[in-house]
Specification:
This protein folds into 4 domains: 2-149, Rossmann fold (3-Layer(aba) Sandwich); 159-390, Alpha-Beta Horseshoe (pyruvate-formate lyase- activating enzyme), CATH 3.80.30.20; 407-483, no CATH class; 496-586, no CATH class. 40% of the residues lie in helices and 17% in strands. The protein contains 23 helices and 20 strands. Strands 2-1-3-4-5-6-7 form a 7-stranded mixed beta sheet, with helices on both faces. The longest helix is centred in the last third of the chain and has 18 residues, at 392-409.
Length: 590
């Protein structure tokens, strides 16, 4: 028997954990097993042709909200040319409403719902022995014209029964984003989430986790993305895992965790201060700061404690924090969401992620759609268009704001520029994004894509349109951000000062050993022409570095400054450009 495990990932760098679990769980059986992963960006014709060329008896798809429609299309096409091929689907997107799915998609032969490892193993054994499927719990199948849905299977109590999926050639995972779990289940009961349908939390043994992580570290993966719904459910367990990562001191690997902030106590916060910059990344679900909303969706949130934790971690400047909000929740109208947005934005996370509520199959909120007046299309991704508290028009406005937050607020390219605008011209961050979104929509910028250079230009034009009296100040701020983040020449609309004079003195400045030792120690013994490729020397009309302490326009000190930017590079150990004030030494001559 020849089996192909496959799925369509959202990106090439992703990998599917569930397929590898299934492969390892049946590896001792007398079957031929292959894994092939595609992406949703590939042509359906190509995927079908590649699968068709394989001489297989059974194809098993891992099915999710982002790929279910494409997978249905692939199944239909495969059955046209290979009617004898058995097709099985599993995953959260087919674990609910099974009868309707199979009635509407005649080419799906089997569905495994719920936790799949044991059900799939029994399914394969019964297929090989021709024993029928009546006894296979967690399986739906066709019996002539009937669709049979067997009773659900109990969860695997001891997760260590599941073999590790990380036994392949290390090169398979190099530079990939690897999804990894140390536990299944969640201690909380958020009504928009499928994890709330499974009670309790089960954990893999700590030794198993350490072996897996050592394999992934040695494989030089790009990122390990922990899919535990609450990684820090068990403090001691989480600490031991993070300590293990720290002890192995991996290079150029990022570890992403979903954590609950109010469970991070002072001992863990003190430990987090020791983490190397860029090694850890935290995703913290806030969703809303409206207490009535929080209660309606069954969350457990202490925003005061969350704020303390986020601010404390911010002081370390070593861990990226991603905070989430959801648009479309019960009792969260436009003004309420504005408050939630400002509450979270003021915490200054590296990324503020605005999501739009999806009524997932099996979630409690979907079952209460009439209670809250949810209006949505019953097709993936099941996104709410409006409800009793927020209109479709308002949600469309928030979608443009979300896009601008992603393009400008979440990118270091505009960090100082956006801070300056909000601080001096708007009462709240949301007011700025709301105003900018109106300009953006009026100019129809939302209808086309934009390069990074164009995004700078649009922001410059917007400021000139709204606050032209301060354009000379803004010019230097956006110039700083542009140079700091881009080792390239400035666009013409940004004014430069004394370019020829700077060029004249630059060469002499870089020839002086005392200056190199003081400002560019890593470039000792480098020729000047080599150094020039990796630095910029720019004149500013005021003390721009001091302005960044407060961003208050009234605090500007009009004193010319010469700033040296040492740009980040592929071979540099630092991840950001280095900036130094060289005013007092720059114009010195023999």
């Amino acid at each position: 028997m020849k089996i192909l495990f496959t799925t369509l990932n959202s990106k090439f760098v992703h990998s599917c954990l569930s397929l590898r679990y299934l492969k390892e769980y049946i590896k001792d059986l007398n079957v031929s097993i292959d894994i092939e992963e595609y992406t949703i960006n590939q042509q359906i014709d190509f995927i079908v042709s590649e699968i068709y060329k394989k001489d297989i008896d059974l194809i098993a798809f891992a099915t999710y909200i982002w790929n279910v429609e494409e997978i249905k299309d692939i199944c239909n096409r495969l059955k046209l040319v290979r009617p004898e091929l058995s097709i099985l689907l599993g995953g959260p997107e087919v674990s609910f409403d099974i009868k309707n799915i199979m009635n509407e998609n005649k080419n799906i032969d089997f569905i495994i719902y719920g936790e799949g490892e044991e059900s799939f193993r029994e399914f394969i054994i019964n297929t090989m022995e021709d024993n029928g499927y009546e006894s296979v719990l967690g399986l739906a199948y066709r019996n002539k014209s009937d669709i049979i849905i067997n009773k659900p299977r109990e969860l695997i109590h001891d997760l260590n029964k599941i073999p590790s999926p990380f036994k392949e050639n290390m090169d398979t995972f190099k530079n990939k984003i690897i999804y990894y779990e140390t536990s299944r289940g969640c201690p909380f009961n958020c009504k928009f989430c499928l994890s709330s349908t499974i009670k309790g939390v089960r954990m893999f043994s700590i030794d198993r986790v350490k072996r897996d992580l050592k394999f992934l570290i040695d494989s030089k993966v790009k990122q390990v993305k922990f899919v535990d719904r609450t990684f820090n459910t068990n403090k001691e367990y989480a600490m031991e895992i993070m300590n293990f990562i720290l002890e192995n001191n991996p290079e150029n690997i990022n570890f992403h965790f979903e954590v609950t902030a109010h469970l991070l106590d002072n001992e863990m916060l003190e430990f987090l201060g020791k983490i190397k910059e860029g090694m850890f990344q935290f995703e913290i679900g806030v969703q809303s700061t409206n207490e009535k909303t929080i209660k309606a969706i069954g969350r457990t949130t202490d925003f005061q404690k969350l704020s303390y934790v986020v601010n404390k971690i911010n002081t370390y400047k070593n861990i990226h924090q991603h905070l989430d909000l959801i648009v479309g929740l019960p009792y969260e109208d436009y003004d309420s969401f504005k408050k939630s947005f400002n509450d979270v934005y003021d915490l200054e996370p590296e990324k503020l992620q605005l999501g739009f509520l999806k009524l997932l199959k099996g979630s409690e909120l979907r079952d209460k759609e009439k209670l809250y007046g949810f209006k949505y299309i019953d097709k993936p991704p099941y996104e709410v268009m409006e409800n009793d508290y927020i209109s479709y028009k308002e949600i469309l406005k928030l979608k443009i704001i979300e896009d601008l937050v992603e393009k400008y607020g979440n990118e270091l390219n505009f960090r100082n520029t956006i801070k300056f605008i909000i601080k001096n011209y708007f009462s709240t961050p949301f007011d700025f994004y709301e105003d900018f979104s109106s300009y953006w929509e009026e100019k129809k910028y939302h209808t086309i894509s934009h390069s990074l250079k164009k995004l700078y230009e649009i922001l410059y034009q917007y400021f000139n349109y709204r606050f032209s009296e301060d354009l000379n100040i803004f010019n230097d701020i956006i110039k700083y951000d542009y140079i700091f983040n881009n080792n390239s020449s400035l666009p013409k609309y940004i004014e430069m000062y004394d370019e020829e004079k700077i060029k004249k003195y630059r060469h002499y400045f870089l020839q002086q050993e005392i200056n190199i030792n003081k400002y560019l120690f890593d470039y000792r013994n480098f020729p000047v022409k080599k150094i020039i490729k990796n630095i910029s020397i720019i004149k500013f009309k005021f003390d721009i570095l001091k302005l960044f302490n407060t961003y208050e326009i009234d605090d500007i000190i009009y004193k010319e400054k010469i700033i040296l930017f040492e740009h980040k590079g592929k071979n540099k150990i630092f991840t950001k450009s280095k900036v130094r004030d060289i005013t007092k030494d720059f114009y010195k001559e023999e």
